[in-house]
Design a protein that fits this description.
With about 350 residues, the chain is of the alpha/beta class. The protein has ten helices and 14 strands.
Length: about 350
């Protein structure tokens, strides 16, 4: 007689809460303290397999491996820019690829991490926006990017990771639960123990989710990818603005500041002949009045899918000076990693994904 068996689908242990892990451990006949050991291996020591858990018996490790999945990301390849920026393609357990970047500067080591495979927002200047969104990343997959990039900082530059920006592939606020869970693991004393003030989450502008951040009283920093303080222009380059107008974003940001008392960063890429004039600078200045903020002016990095051009350096200087003369805090972010397509707006895997 032919007997068929169906493989039992294992649970991803990193999707479980601590209390759920403890319940599972007790159900296996183990003492409750074993859950604490496992949790530490998962989120403090960043174990890639159950067999690394050396203070747990071999028999228990084998039972864990039989019952649960542990699905870390892997490094598919890395590229090092002439300016020392490192871009990595990470492979996920289901065959998809994402990208993350280590950005070294004189005073910090920053990890730029992705939150989705692809993106659904279709911003016209961003390479990721020309990809389809395949899926959201799990909290563990976001966490793993930070761990791998931190290793790169130590290995290549002997400097610890100091900052994290959620500015890679995807819209973080459309993967809200996993993004916040990943930050919890990164900042928890039971995890990597990083200060939330060294973490910035960047959004293209989803008003209701900005308000949810406020209600959740988050401690990390918020950045808004603005790029035009004029609805007509912003609609042209960022379709999300059609359902999240500048007025709605203004109200959401004011609510966010009222709840968190955290200053907002406005990110503003300058495009030649589009948003680089003094009239544009004044519109941005008026928008900065709504909430305590600073402005990051970002050099545009051309992509093959779009026809936008980098603004003239003189226009950039005039734009920045206009804001500074009106007491706006301005930082000009020069391009990093352009030669390896690692700069702002250039992340889009050239590899085929499933």
């Amino acid at each position: 007689m032919l007997v068929t068996t169906t493989a039992i689908k294992k649970k991803d242990i990193r999707k479980l809460s601590f209390e759920e892990v403890k319940s599972e451990v007790i159900a296996m006949g183990e003492k409750p303290f074993r859950a604490k050991q496992i949790w530490e291996w998962l989120w403090k020591k960043s174990a890639h397999s159950f067999h690394e858990m050396s203070n747990i018996s071999k028999t228990t490790r084998e039972r864990l491996s039989d019952s649960f999945d542990l699905l870390p990301i892997g490094v598919d390849n890395t590229q090092i820019s002439e300016d020392r920026t490192i871009k990595s393609a990470f492979n996920l357990h289901d065959g998809h690829l994402i990208e993350g970047v280590l950005i070294p500067t004189d005073d910090r080591m920053t990890a730029c991490v992705s939150s989705q495979v692809g993106c659904s927002l279709s911003c016209k200047f961003c390479a990721t926006g020309y990809m389809d969104r395949k899926r959201n990343l799990d909290a563990g997959e976001i966490y793993d990017q930070v761990v791998e990039i931190a290793h790169q900082a130590e290995e290549h530059y002997q400097v610890p990771l100091s900052n994290i920006v959620y500015m890679g592939m995807g819209e973080p606020l459309l993967n809200y639960a996993n993004v916040l869970k990943s930050i919890e693991h990164i900042t928890s004393p039971d995890g990597l123990g990083m200060s939330p003030k060294r973490i910035t989450v960047s959004t293209a502008g989803i008003a209701k989710m900005i308000k949810k951040l406020a209600d959740d009283e988050v401690k990390f920093n918020l950045a808004l990818s603005l790029h035009a303080a004029n609805d007509t222009k912003r609609n042209t380059i960022m379709p999300i603005n059609e359902s999240n107008s500048l007025e709605s974003l203004k109200e959401a940001l004011q609510y966010f500041y009222k709840k968190t008392r955290s200053r907002v960063t406005f990110e503003y890429i300058l495009f030649y002949g589009f948003n680089d004039g003094l009239e544009d600078a004044d519109e941005l200045y008026q928008f900065t009045k709504y909430v305590p903020s600073k402005v990051n002016i970002i050099e545009y990095n051309p992509i093959s899918e779009a026809t936008f051009k980098k603004a003239d350096p003189r226009a950039l200087d005039k734009f920045a000076a206009y804001l500074e003369e009106r007491d706006v805090t301005v930082v000009v972010r020069r391009s990093r990693g352009k030669d390896i397509d690692a700069a702002c707006g250039q992340l889009a895997n050239k590899e085929k994904t499933n």
